[in-house]
Write a structure and sequence with these properties.
alpha/beta; five-stranded parallel beta sheet; 28 helices; 18 strands; 9% strand
Length: 776
């Protein structure tokens, strides 16, 4: 039999339409508690970093927050009986304000315990608000549309969760934090001072929130709202005898619904809580916290859109059909994120919230169509379908495909004359500038010249920063550190490479690089197939240690798996070439993942020794011929070039090395290792600045990657490596705040990776590059 415990007064009075005014005011409350709840997702990684918490400790934030729901729900119900719905909602707002104001002493004292206490009080107010607001909204109109009203209100709740990460990321995650290793080295006094400085970033947002809540409470108190008094205790004797013998345990659908809500809230909150840290994992997206916070908004934005859609569907379809379909899809997306990696995993988990150009933005996300890009002061200001931006240059990309400028983390300048002849006198201003200009014309807008630089390279880099020199943005490893009578075996001047004989000399070399503000340190360790001595492990261990003391990262030239394994264990930051003597094994892959080591496959390195002999048709295009130049082109097209190359013993070795390099790249990529882009271009004839980078993209695809994955590595992923070297750098993405480095293509490279050669224009720092490479 049905049980009625006092009909709602609105229905008793014959209300058959939703009270729009009351509904509008009530949804403001849903927005506020959604906003505050989702700020926890930003607060968790912030407090985790400040107090050096593990994940279990960090999740005490949500444990304390949602424990308040369990503790205060029943008392809030009693409060509704005592003060009514309106009075309870006012009290809830004031309690929320008190919790928000408690963030002020918590941040001043830098006490994790006080933060948790403030969150408990804040959540107690939210719980009180929810207990009153949910049934209030449900009964503001006809019962048959109550589910739609609740879903609509929850959509505004989701709008609050969508906005909160932008707000929190901008204000709470705006400070620069030290690494956990450095944090643990602080004295107790220094640690407390650091925590107080970092915790201060929460004061302004939460004090502002507290004041807003007080104003809302005052406004809500003075407004006239519909009165509802239908909720009251059920006391023995007030119902007929048969009704009082009923039990919730006799209603399995009700119990299943309660369990579903419990599981749903747990899953939704857990996902949101870990997204910032999840997106920071090297095998997912390697985003810095502030960037990850923006993507958390997409998760909650999906929930907002889904609820708006659900609000409509619930007026047309059965509730069970809508909920069942959503649950199955969400489960599938979570499983997809678990079993995949990289941006597939990232976008799968983001999609859980949701159930006139093409832009490939460098994040690995699907291409977007019909997009305009606004640029101001060399930075991307806006990316959207329709831009109204006064004072910004607007590139109309109708019918084109745009990708970010390519970034090579392993290239060289000043080693060859005319791309053809090694020379100890090649490192001149004119020669280096010509190489930088060629990279830029071919859409390679940033390079790391990874060793073999004269000190002139620092001056040229500084001129670029001052805006007096053009070309691809230059980052330099300075001279680099090699081996006496060993690698590198190239014809360079004595002041282009250090060759220390002892660990002490090696440390002095690092100190010199640090004094000149090198962007990274390069070392050569391998014996070049046994032809020269390898670097003493004690020397490269000293280089790695001294570099890290000087806050410099280290990239290593490697070939052998044994060398790579030892370097990773010693803390090298970047393996600058592929392992090519044998397939990588599981222990090595696990070690690379555990040490967060970057891996640059440089597939074009070995290929350059034979590809022009085995595939001479490559040399027919103007895209290649302009890059190669007349001297190199004459050498490669000489009548006896192909015959001599194919007969040389080293050619077969290079072909074997190239095959193993591709195999190892695929294994490492599939395992989630951080892959960066580089070619070793400019080091020897055949590795041609600009052209080799486009050829490397083709090699990545031949190795088994998709065109989108290859482009992502060459842009956004390598931009993350540069961000690791210098956190102020924002390169490699088509996103607001990033350098406006763009390649505009006349064909879509996702259809054919060779379409990256179809260059219509190149923009570098927002300026059109003169004379871009000819289309293939």
């Amino acid at each position: 039999m049905a049980i009625s415990v006092g009909a709602p007064s609105s229905l008793q009075s014959g209300l058959r339409k939703t009270d729009v005014r009351a509904m509008s005011i009530a949804t403001m409350l849903f927005f506020m508690w959604g906003f505050l709840t989702c700020l926890n997702d930003i607060l968790i990684p912030h407090l985790k970093a400040i107090f050096d918490l593990n994940y279990a400790q960090a999740m005490l934030v949500q444990f304390c927050f949602f424990s308040s729901y369990f503790i205060f729900a029943l008392p809030a119900g009693k409060l509704v009986e005592w003060r009514g719905y309106k009075g309870t909602m006012v009290i809830g707002l004031l309690v929320m304000a008190a919790g928000a104001f408690l963030f002020l002493p918590a941040s001043t004292a830098a006490s994790f315990g006080l933060f948790l206490s403030a969150l408990v009080i804040l959540a107690a107010g939210i719980t009180t608000l929810q207990v009153a607001a949910n049934p209030y909204v449900a009964n503001l109109g006809p019962p048959e549309t109550s589910a739609a009203r609740l879903n609509l209100s929850q959509a505004f709740n989701s709008f609050g969760t969508f906005v909160a990460p932008f707000f929190g990321g901008a204000l709470i995650l705006s400070t620069t934090q030290v690494t956990q290793e450095k944090l643990r080295s602080f004295s107790a006094a220094a640690l407390q001072q650091y925590r107080m400085e970092q915790a201060s970033s929460v004061r302004l947002p939460y004090v502002g929130i507290g004041l807003t809540l007080v104003l809302l409470a005052i406004s809500f108190a003075v407004l006239k709202m519909p009165t509802m008094d239908f909720t009251r205790d059920i006391r023995p004797g007030e119902l007929d005898a048969s009704a009082t013998t009923d039990s919730i345990w006799k209603h399995p659908v009700l119990l299943a619904g309660a369990l579903a809500i419990f599981v749903y809230v747990g899953a939704e909150v857990s996902i949101g809580s870990f997204l910032v840290n999840y997106f920071g994992l090297p095998d997912i997206a390697a985003f810095p916290e502030r960037t990850a916070a923006r993507y958390v908004s997409l998760y909650w934005g999906g929930a907002m859109v889904g609820r708006f859609i659900g609000s409509y569907l619930l007026t047309k379809l059965r509730t069970s059909t809508v909920l069942g379909t959503a649950a199955v899809v969400a489960c599938g997306l979570v499983v997809t994120s678990i079993i995949t990696h990289g941006h597939t995993a990232m976008w799968a988990i983001l999609a859980v919230g949701l159930f006139n150009s093409t832009v490939i933005d460098g994040t690995g996300s699907p291409a977007r169509e019909h997009i305009d890009i606004a640029i101001r002061n060399g930075l991307i200001e806006n990316v959207s379908k329709t831009i109204q931006s006064s004072g910004a240059a607007v590139i109309d990309c109708t019918g084109k495909t745009i990708i970010p400028g390519l970034i090579s983390a392993h290239s060289h300048v000043g080693i060859l004359l005319n791309n053809a002849d090694p020379s100890a006198t090649a490192y001149t201003t004119d020669n280096v500038t010509a190489a930088l200009n060629q990279y830029e014309r071919y859409g390679v807008t940033s390079i790391i010249s990874l060793g073999l630089n004269r000190d002139l390279g620092y001056d040229l880099r500084d001129q670029q920063r001052a805006g007096t020199l053009g070309g691809a943005t230059l980052f330099t490893a300075g001279r680099g550190i090699g081996v006496p009578d060993g690698a590198p075996p190239l014809l360079v001047a004595a002041d282009q490479v250090y060759r220390p004989a002892t660990p002490s000399e090696a440390r002095q070399n690092v100190d010199e690089l640090a004094a000149r503000h090198a962007d990274i340190v390069k070392i050569w360790v391998d014996p070049l197939h046994g032809r020269v001595p390898s670097m003493d492990p004690a020397i490269y261990a000293a280089i790695i240690d001294q570099s890290h003391l000087k806050r410099l990262h280290v990239a290593a030239h490697v070939y052998l798996l044994a060398d790579a394994r030892q370097l990773v264990n010693d803390g090298v930051d970047v393996l600058a070439h592929s392992v090519r003597d044998q397939p990588v094994d599981t222990p090595f892959i696990q070690s690379v993942l555990q040490h967060h080591t970057w891996y640059i496959p440089t597939l074009a390195l070995d290929e350059a020794f034979f590809i022009f002999a085995t595939h001479p048709e490559i040399m027919q295009s103007n895209f290649f011929r302009q890059a190669a130049g007349p001297q190199l082109l004459a050498r490669l097209t000489a009548p006896d070039y192909a015959t001599k190359t194919l007969a040389a013993p080293q050619t077969a070795q290079s072909q074997r090395d190239h095959a193993i390099a591709r195999q190892n790249l695929k294994a490492l990529y599939d395992s989630g290792v951080k892959i960066a882009f580089g070619t070793d271009s400019g080091a020897v004839p055949g590795r041609i600045p600009g052209f080799s980078e486009h050829r490397e993209l083709e090699n990545l695809v031949t190795a088994g990657l998709t065109p989108l994955q290859a482009i992502t590595i060459a842009t956004g992923q390598t931009g993350q490596l540069l961000h690791t070297l210098d956190p102020t750098l924002c390169l490699g993405l088509i996103a607001p705040g990033y350098s406006a480095d763009l390649i505009i293509l006349t064909a879509n490279p996702l259809n054919d990776i060779k379409n990256t050669r179809r260059i219509s224009a190149v923009y570098h720092h927002g300026n059109a590059v003169a004379n871009p490479a000819p289309q293939d």
